[in-house]
Amino acid sequence: MLVAGIKSRPVYTGLTIQPNARRHIFALEGEGAKALLNQQPALDETALSRSEILYVARGSQGTGLDEALRRLGADMFFTAPTIATLLFRLKGSLTTARMGTRLYLSGTEGFIGQAMLVALDYGMDHASVITEHRGSLARRVQCVHCKGITDDVTTSPFNCSHCGLRLLVRDHYSRRLAAFQGVNIDAEEPGSAPDPEELFL
């Protein structure tokens, strides 16, 4: 869909290491590992001694990205089996974080959005979190009718996994929900929805 000028649409500036940070927390999903690995020239011994890497493989299992991250030699490294586990660990890290901590997020939009919610809950300004989109364009979508959330949506329209309505995936994004909005496409004429198109691969 990608309509120009939607102000709620997230902007990902790309990972850049902030050299003066007291602590670096990297929360990475799947291909998001490559965003950090590409920053190796900026990761000197001092930066790595102040770094914590949280990683969930997801779509990149078996490609060795977890081992490549481990070899960086960060102060702390944690591999999570699921996004939920990683987010729980991130909460623990932010609970003890002090002023001068920088948070870096990289992975799919759904992952970045969910990790951003954790950061916001701990008082971080979304503009201060450094983000880079990597991997699938699949979206996390909230049905505006039943309020259910469906992860990894690649087509529009699609059937809501909660109420079954045919939803058009909008480019409008809710930071509060970490999800794009889905609206009933055939509300006025049930059964008239067009065939699904693969738009978010």
From TrEMBL:
Q: Which InterPro entries match?
A: DmmA-like_C (IPR048037), DmmA-like_N (IPR054582)
Q: Which GO terms describe its molecular function?
A: monooxygenase activity
All copies of domain Dimethylamine monooxygenase subunit DmmA-like N-terminal, residue ranges: 5-129
Q: Which UniProt keywords apply?
A: 2Fe-2S, Flavoprotein, Iron, Iron-sulfur, Metal-binding, Monooxygenase, Oxidoreductase
Q: Please indicate which superkingdom the organism of origin belongs to.
A: Bacteria
Q: Does the keyword Ribosomal protein apply?
A: no
- Does the entry feature the keyword Iron-sulfur, yes or no? yes
The Dimethylamine monooxygenase subunit DmmA-like C-terminal domain sits at 140-183
Name it: Dimethylamine monooxygenase subunit DmmA family protein
